[in-house]
Amino acid sequence: MIKTDILIIGAGPTGLFTVFEAGLLQLKCHLIDALPQPGGQCSEIYPKKPIYDIPGFPEVLAGKLVDNLMEQIAPFQPGFTLGERAEKIEKQEDGSFVVTTNKGTQHHAPIVAIAGGLGSFEPRKPLLDNLSNFEDKGVAYMIKDPEVYRDKKVLIAGGGDSALDWSIFLADVAAEVTLVHRRNEFRGALDSVEKVQQLKNQRKINLITPAEVVGLQGENKLERVIVRKTDNSEEIDLEVDDFIPLFGLSPKLGPIAEWGLDIEKNAIKVDNTLDYQTNIPGIYAIGDVNTYPGKLKLILCGFHEATLMCQSAYQRIYPDKKYVMKYTTVGGVSGFDGSKKEAPKAVVKSID
Fold first, then answer.
1. Structure letter (DSSP) for residue 119
2. Which of 184, 176, 162 is nearest to 225 (CA)?
3. Radius of gyration for the chain, computed over Cα atoms and rounded to the nearest angstrom
4. Does the structure show a pLDDT above 50 at 348?
5. In the predicted model, is pLDDT for residue 323 greater than 70?
6. Are residue 117 and residue 11 in the same domain, yes or no?
7. Can you give the residue range of the structural domain that contains 156?
8. What does the alpha-carbon distance between residue 31 and residue 4 come to, in Å, rounded to a whole number?
9. Domain-ending residue, one of 224, 245, 266
10. Same domain, yes or no: 164 and 148
């Protein structure tokens, strides 16, 4: 049985940053993730997608962010159970928990932090009769490697951040980028909307709104897309190489939904007035998997939630210790390879 101080379910950016914050408090972490590698969606779905709202990084690729987080937490030597899904949780008499995966691996910890992002997920697909005929033949629901679209004619559908960000990015990669959205207004960041408008004015993006894709055509692969304007029913026949509908993901919590947690709209309710604890003491939910009034599903917010959660976890594990977190400084600790690495430690005033 694997024993640790904090068992983190989900090895996405929020889960990884939790290791850092826990390490400052000298708490050990172990992470479980159904994916075969750390990073969550950033590694599995869009490693080459640029992210613009990480402090100190005007732009960073999702995969690079994961690499940086892994480097940041390496001195704290977290454990990983990858390629296994957290299946069952059992509360022990002392208030701790045993979590068993679908492969039977057992983990024991006084604290469980659920950082499962959107959980298991499937892309939301447009309602087109012959859509499945072109999947992997010109139709894709996510972008892992933008170089696939080098010098091609690409049509993106959607009105959120992913659709906007990828349209901006591919404007310098693809031969032609067309962005279609059913409304004139977008749901993404204002700065991204302004960039798309600028690229449209520069004729680097073909913007069609309000409109929707109503037909796909081609023999052995996608060749043409039919777009219908929703304000006047005009149909536009476009020659394209690739169609990428970015309508978001349909999340499912999976087995976690059966753990007795308070669930609201497929997310775990937490107390955001203090520490993001669930209705079960000792179990926390941080990042996109949780919900509370005013919740924003941003990586930045997940980092903040992880920080406060670790403070609360420390108090639960060491109820007789009182401390005041002041700041971080640098202290050497051993790395994975046995070498001496520099890692920050919290300067804490504690009273035993």
1. B
2. 176
3. 23
4. no
5. no
6. yes
7. 125-245
8. 10
9. 245
10. yes
